Amino acid sequence: MPDSIGSQTRDDSFRMIVLMDLDSPRLARQVTVLLAALIVLLVVSPVLHLLFGVVHAPADLAGIVQTIETWRMVGRSVALALLVAFGAMALGTALAWLLVRSRVSGFMRGLLLILLVAPLAMPSYVVAFGLMAVTGHEGLLSGLWPAALRPTQLPAVSSWVILVSCTYPYTLLSVRAALMKECTTLEEAAIGLGASRRGAFRAILMPRLLPSMVWGGMLAGLYALADFGAVSLVGFETMTWGIYHRYNTAFGLADARALCVLLIALSALMILGLIPFRAAQSRTTSAVPIPPAPIRFGRWGVLLVGLAILPLAIAVVFPLVAAIGWLARSDMPGAVLHAAGPAAWTTFLLAASAAIVVPVLALPLATLHVGTAGGGSARRWARVLTPLTLLGFALPGLVVAIALAGLALRVDHVIEWTFGLPVDARLYQSHLVLLIAYAILFLPEAAGPLRATAQRVHAEQIDAAVQFGGSPLARWWRIVLPQLAPGLAAGSVLVFITTAKELPATLLLSPLNVQTLATRLWSAMEEVYFAIAAAAAIWLLGLVVIGVAIILIIERLSDANDR
User: Quick one: which of 114, 82, 122 has its CA closest to 214?
Assistant: First the structure.
């Protein structure tokens, strides 16, 4: 009897110690940091795997570097990225100036902003489909369009036009934000002293806008460097094109991995180039912004309107016209549209799964920004770990897919050799590996809105909960999580949209006989089945439009709550 009483007392004491430890802020901080570090390790695992392979087989990298074809692909990729960056800088800056400084009413200004940002939601391969289905061989305007100007005849020019039309909103949004924060006093003073408006812009405003311009242009260049869909459809042989074609050959896997390492190195150089301009962005804004007087553009207004219409036509109107036109040309448009239904349902399920999983993975990092896991040390960990999560944005989907395919095959081999693994239970080309790829690629989309909302969590409520004895978990659940809800919702919708239109990782990692709208459109375009591609494009655009509408609703509700 005494032994049983003593045993019960020891059990109760142990349970109390465990509960006290679970309720301690230090343990909560350690658990949060550990979870965030594990998520960051997941994000960097593709790069580590590829680098590990190069270290253990340096001859593969040495062999691919010594070929002329490799350097031609590198030259094309770098040239395309730089030209897209400069094109997006010029076009985005001009349109941002039009939006902020023109004599346009508030409603029309908002509508124009939505229209001009719309190309950012369009996948590059859908824009390529629109251009080819309208102006290409057997396109809607093939009889009127010169054969020498078809997209496949001018792959470099076509790639540049498509990618600039898709990426100029990066510069537009960045420069527009800088313009809205600018104080116009110096600019107006220079004009009052006799300088022309153009001279005042060059001397005063341009140096202050330059960091935002370069930031947007470099993001566009990074997008172009990683693009696979558009360049492959028009036949421009960049590094992503080379990686994909080597991966699909019997003995080209080692070459594909070596090219992936080269592409990672180029992406890293571009990211390093972004850092000083990102820092300069925060230093070049005015303390007290003064709304500028509207400018009458005169004949320049016609040019600016033309600049606004042209990329909008290429990125939005052409795909819509091509999709509707080719669907109407088919004998049974309803049947063709219905045939894409299973792919649409698969796309929805995959995108919805990613929209649930990826924001949940971003929660530990967001919690570190709140500081509820332990004061200043949590914020220090946040500063270390958060930049690493942005690697997913910089890594091409093709690189992530090839790295994860290699990891999955290695794990399958080990488990099969150790335990014996059925073919249908393998990791390679499973939904799990595909979901991991989406998590690596789209964690920045979820982490961005969550980080913004986490930094606005009211510290007074958390301090009050501490005073009343609330545990760290209870404080997080009752106070922090409800305030993170808007960022969680916005991040989920962003992940849904980007997952629905993702092509290269889905193309390489999706299970056999599983087809999404992106892969269906890709396959149809490879075989020049424009009607089938049109049906997939209509379904895909419908999903994207619904997602964008939800984001706008969330922003309106968030602004209303702030007021």
Answer: 82
